[in-house]
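Notebook entry, structure prediction.
Reason for the run: the old model in the group folder had no record of what sequence produced it. Starting over properly, with the input documented here first.
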Amino acid sequence: MPAPWRCKGDPALWEEHANTHIAPAIGLPALPLVRFTGDVPQPGDPRVPLMELLSARKWAPLLRYAAGRPFAWVDDVIPPRLVRNSLCRRDRLLLPIDPGPGLERRHVDRLLARPPRTLAGRLPLRGSAAS
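New structure, fully documented this time:
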């Protein structure tokens, strides 16, 4: 297996670098991305427990961007509570990654084996922002 994909600097700032480094390596086209830098909380954002404010800061922007569409969140900082609460949801897949070894083939295989689906069980339309 090739070495894990890594981004220099803060791993929370992958953003568009994922399309440059990861997508081509696993055969994906450039995909839509959610920008977290500069995000401002909005009315109606989910409440996050005080102890998770830093680790869950991406949750509200992800939910806003997905706007009810299926999505996958692959990150090295996902609060365990959010992962547990999403286990039975077919419309989202939260996949924590250990920052040491980084993204590995088994993570990609997991995403391909059970991609997020609409609640009705259908795959999202090709090209939708959350696919």
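Summary: Residues 1-12, 125-131 have pLDDT under 50 and may be disordered.
The old model has been moved to the deprecated folder.
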